[in-house]
Q: What sequence folds into this?
């Protein structure tokens, strides 16, 4: 830089702007390269109905869990009969067994709670999640008897 400023304050301002420009350029280049090199992995289904239409995919759930009872419910019985019941290896005793089967077979999907997937250090990096929630379940709040918040939540 043959024409750098003579005053100390101007030199500091000049070099700060130079470094900021360099960092912005590096961040832009890194973002561009990462977007161009990463393959966009999209699952071929977003809902249970889409999954049912795909003949090659299978669905696994944990045996004896709330999800098994949920799928045996009247609203999801059709999915249970189409995706889970015909196959002998779809009901597993643990999430680890489901994950192992999903690692071996790329056409195997399993239902796991968000908490299990978030706490799983291996699964968070390897597995893909559906964009939408496949299951919609009701929730409940329990309040102690005589709680001052009970009327507020009953009203809402």
A:
């Amino acid at each position: 830089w043959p024409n750098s400023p003579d005053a100390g304050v101007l030199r500091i301002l000049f070099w700060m702007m130079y470094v900021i420009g360099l960092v912005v350029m590096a961040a832009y280049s890194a973002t561009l390269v990462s977007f161009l090199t990463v393959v966009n992995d999209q699952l071929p289904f977003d809902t249970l109905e889409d999954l049912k239409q795909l003949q090659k995919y299978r669905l696994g759930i944990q045996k004896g869990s709330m999800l098994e009872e949920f799928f045996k419910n009247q609203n999801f019985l059709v999915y249970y009969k189409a995706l889970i019941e015909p196959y002998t290896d779809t009901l597993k005793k643990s999430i680890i067994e489901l994950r192992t089967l999903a690692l071996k077979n790329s056409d195997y999907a399993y239902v796991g709670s968000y908490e299990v997937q978030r706490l799983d250090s291996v699964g968070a990096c390897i597995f893909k999640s559906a964009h939408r929630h496949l299951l919609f379940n009701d929730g409940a709040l329990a309040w102690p008897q005589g709680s001052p918040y009970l009327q507020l939540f009953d009203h809402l």
User: Anything to note?
Assistant: Strands lie at 58-62, 91-92, 108-110. Helices lie at 8-37, 48-53, 66-71, 77-84, 95-104, 114-119, 123-126, 150-155. The chain has a mean pLDDT of 76. The longest strand covers residues 58-62.
